[in-house]
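WARN no homologs supplied; continuing
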Amino acid sequence: MAFKYSARTGLLQTTSLVAAGFILSADPAGAAEKLKLSVGGYAEQWFGYTDIDDEGNSSLDLSGFDVKSDTEIHFVGSTKLDNGLEVGINVQLEGNSNSSDQIDESYLTLRGNFGQIDIGDENSALYKTHVAPKEYGMGINSGDTVDWELTGATSIGNGGYFRAPFGGTYVEPVRANDSTKLTYYTPRIEGVRLGMSYSPDSNQDNNTQPDRNAGLSDGVMASIDVSREISGVTVAASAGYGTFLETASGQDEPQAYAFGLTLGYGGLQVGGSFAGFQDSGANDGDGYTLGASYDFGQYGVSLTYLHGERDGLAGSTAPGTVQADRDTIALGGQYILGPGVSAQATIGYSEYTSDTAGAGDIQAAYAITGIRVTF
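OK structure emitted
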C-alpha cells in the first residue's frame, strides 16, 4: 500500500513548495487595482422531437415535442498584483431550478510564472485537461442527451450518467463532481502540462471535517496533457487517473482513468477518447467515443459515436448482478449568428440494453434544435 502514502504526500509536498515559493518571492503589493467582478455565462434553449420505445415498460408514452433549458450566470473577476501574482475568482449560479446544487462551481485562482492553483469547488485536473472529439449541437459525450432518451420511469433509469463512463469520457472518481479541492497546474513546456488535485472528501459545498472512518476521503487526481502543432497538424492528447486513498472499512479504493487524442488539420478534426471505472460498485465499466468534425467559416458539423458499459442499471447499487450497455450516434451542427450567439442542432439515436429481468431494450431517436448564447 505504499502508493497511498507516496501519492498523497507527493501531491501535498509539491503543492506546498509551489505555494511557498511564490509567496516568499513576492514583494508587497502596492498600487494594484482592487478585484472587480463582471457577469458572464451562457443560456441554452432547446426545442425538439423524440421517439422513445421502452420494451420493459409499455405503459409509458414519452414520444413527442419538448422544450429544455440550461442556463448559468458566472460572476468572474481577477486582479494582478504589483508582484506579478494574478488572483481571480469564479462563482457559477444555476439559472434553472436546482434544489441540490444552486451554486455550481465556486473557486479562487492564483496564477503566475509558477503555473496555476485552483482552490475551491471545481472539477479536478483529471476532468479539466481531458481531450475528446469536438462536438456541435447537444453533445453526447457528457450525459446531456440522456434527458431526451430516458426518464426515471423507464426500465433503465436516467441517473448516474454524468461524470461516469456510461455517460461519457469526462469522469471523476465516484462521480465526485466539483468536490472541494486544491489543484495545481504546471506551466506548459513544449506544449506539455501536468495537473494534480487533492480533495479531502467527495463532498461539494461542505466545510465539515471529514471522518475518514465513515466514508471516502483523501482523493488524488493527476493528469498530463499535450497540445502541439507538428507540420501543420494540431495534436492534442491527455491521460489522467484518480482515486480516493481512504475508504470506509472493507471497501476498495474507487479508481477512475481517462485518455484522449485528437488530430486537426485546417478545419478538420478527428479523434477518440476512453474512460473507465474500477471498484466503484454499479458504476464499474468502460466507455469510449469516436468523432470527426469540420469547421468552415460560420458553420460547423460533427459526427460522434459513444459506447458505454456498466455493471449495474442506472441508479442501482448492486454491482455484478446485471450489465447495461448503450450505443449512441449523433450528427450535430452549428451556425454562428453573431458574437456569442449560435444556432445549434442535433439528430441522434441511442439504444440501451440490459440483461436484468424486466429491463427491456430502449430505443430513442430525436431531432433537436436550439439557440446558445454566451455572455
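The chain is about 10% helix and 50% strand.
OK
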